Amino acid sequence: MGSKNLISAAIFFLLLDWSATPTVARVRARHRPCKRMVFYFHDILYNRHNAKNATAAIVGAPAWGNTTILAGQNHFGNVVVFDDPITLDNNLHSPAVGRAQGFYLYDKKEVFTAWLGFSFVFNSTEHKGSINFAGADPLMNKTRTSR
């Protein structure tokens, strides 16, 4: 009689454990992939008067430039590092969901464009983790998107 109860208890706990284990379909239903994300990062370039609020600084400039004013000729030769707040809307004063950290450099004389390398580092309750970016940024395009 004792072994019968032991076998029944073991079957009961196996069934209980199996029913509590999420199936692949249930996990997929809870974690739907995100198809569209919209974030804004706010770059405030240091200009000798805004050290407290600046989130970016020119760290390299051509011989004719300086480190507080972007160079002429489409800013060619300037290198900027940044640590900008990321928000969910276009308002700098909205709560930050993370930081955009990296650099950009102006790489063409004839066209106003930049090359970027940076990470979005998320640290809010809803957004965690990081996304890395690298590549050309056609600044003159009104809207720049990735697909």
Automatic annotation (TrEMBL):
InterPro entries in the cross-refs: Dirigent
Signal peptide (UniProt feature, chain positions): 1-25
GO cellular component: apoplast
Subcellular location: Secreted, Extracellular space, Apoplast
Pfam families linked: Dirigent
Highest rank taxon of the organism: Eukaryota
Primary subcellular site in the record, as a coarse category: secreted
Keywords: Apoplast, Secreted, Signal
Family designation: Belongs to the plant dirigent protein family.
Its biological purpose: Dirigent proteins impart stereoselectivity on the phenoxy radical-coupling reaction, yielding optically active lignans from two molecules of coniferyl alcohol in the biosynthesis of lignans, flavonolignans, and alkaloids and thus plays a central role in plant secondary metabolism.
Subunit structure as annotated in this protein's UniProt entry: Homodimer.
Protein name (database record): Dirigent protein
Organism, as annotated: Sesamum latifolium
The organism's taxonomic lineage, starting at the top: Eukaryota, Viridiplantae, Streptophyta, Embryophyta, Tracheophyta
